[in-house]
UniProtKB/TrEMBL annotation:
Residues 1-116 form the RCK N-terminal domain. It comes from the Bacteria. This is TrkA family potassium uptake protein. Residues 134-227 form the RCK C-terminal domain. PANTHER family: KTR SYSTEM POTASSIUM UPTAKE PROTEIN C (PTHR43833:SF7), POTASSIUM CHANNEL PROTEIN 2-RELATED-RELATED (PTHR43833). SUPFAM superfamilies: NAD(P)-binding Rossmann-fold domains, TrkA C-terminal domain-like. InterPro entries: NAD(P)-bd_dom_sf, RCK_C, RCK_C_sf, RCK_N, Trk_Ktr_HKT_K-transport. Pfam families: TrkA_N.
């Protein structure tokens, strides 16, 4: 996996360091040379450049990059401009940082794939989310063990927990499943809501669009999600 992280502030730099430590190739961009020099030994590659300049950005290895994260937080204008530029260049997956509700609406209008709220979410959590395939959310219990929510892989749809042999084949434990159910709001309008299905048993059947909540060692979770 290859990542480009735009903005080496506290969140962007921390995320870039953690992904680099996981063995992934990371290009960290910032227009402040002091920050670029500060992290050049901790991140795979660091480049001093203006991420709102189309000419310089188009020279980056965008086709080979799996995820671009716009982590600029102190300058909303630069954040929006950089996000729009990378979106226009059709990167594979675009994630951008929002600092308030209005900023988030603008980013959604641009069409980002996901939005980061660093004030609520840690770089550690996002590093795990980016490293593991189809992970919806994660909670680290210690440096080695985590609970994660993962979209049920299509090949497991219609099968039971017993059928996929999570414990024997991957050494991870299924805790529960989350399923979207249709409910009505106070005005009688239907909408989809996530419902926890209770403690998972060997006979729990996995349905399409279910979210599977599993526990295990980080290395085993990585093996299961990236299979």
């Amino acid at each position: 996996m290859k990542y480009i992280i735009v903005g080496l502030g506290s969140f962007g730099a921390s995320l870039a360091e953690k992904l680099t430590a996981q063995g992934y190739e990371v290009i960290g961009l910032d227009n402040n040379m002091n920050k670029v020099d500060l992290f050049k030994e901790k991140i795979s590659h660091t480049i001093c450049m203006d991420a709102t300049d189309e000419y310089t950005v188009s020279g980056l290895p965008l086709k080979e990059t799996d995820v671009v994260i716009i982590a600029i937080g102190e300058n909303q204008g630069a954040n929006v401009m950089a996000t729009a530029l990378f979106k226009n260049l059709q990167v594979k997956r675009l994630i951008s940082r929002a600092v308030d509700a209005l900023h988030e609406k603008v980013l959604m209008a641009i069409g980002v794939d996901e939005i980061v709220h660093p004030e609520e979410e840690t770089a550690e959590r996002w590093a795990k989310k980016l490293c593991l395939t189809d992970v919806v959310d994660s909670f680290e219990l210690s440096g080695d063990f985590s609970v994660i929510e993962i979209k049920v892989p299509q090949k497991y749809t219609g099968k039971t927990i017993r059928d996929i042999q999570l414990r024997r084949r991957y050494n991870v434990l299924a805790l529960t499943t989350i399923r979207k159910s249709e409910v009505k709001n106070v005005f009688g309008k239907p909408y989809k809501e996530n419902k926890v299905q209770g403690v998972a048993s060997p006979d729990t059947v996995l349905e399409e669009n279910d979210i599977l909540v599993i526990y295990g060692a980080n290395k085993d979770l990585r093996n299961f999600t990236n299979q």
